Amino acid sequence: MKKWMSLILLFFLMSSCTEDVKFNNPAFQTLKDNVFWRAQTYKAYLDGDGKIIVEGYLGYEVVKLQTESSTQKTYILGIDNISKAFYSNGNQSEPAEFSTGTNTGNGQIVITDYNIENGTISGTFKFNAVNVDETNTENAKVSFTEGVFYKVPVEFNNIAHQL
After folding, report:
1. Cα maximum dimension of the chain
2. What is the pTM of this model?
3. For FRET with 56, which of 6, 41, 86, 102 sits at 20 to 30 Å CA-CA?
């Protein structure tokens, strides 16, 4: 009798176990000021000048990453206005906008894969962006760390969507 009870218990135990695995493929996610942030929608553009712009949207929030080309390499932010990052939150009474640029902010964007055949781009990013409104000392900067964009679809446009 003990064998039957053990067998029935084992059967119910094994049948109740399931694996609910959810894959983020494609994905755009990061830590914004050490809080997990995952874009609901994302896209990338290749403009006529060869720049790549990767965008992630979460409600009223937008993160935009721009590199001078689609070449697989590390792009340093805060040096010029060609490779840069931008964040905005339009869900406030006074919308906040943050950016890197020439001698402003810092960070990097690393393109790890640009698949021309599938039209996708992947990479990592991290940056500290400064508030565009210099008078807003209460909300002076925003930090993004451990950022990943994975297999984001690339649209080919002749119109530049520059930051």
Report:
1. 78
2. 0.80
3. 102
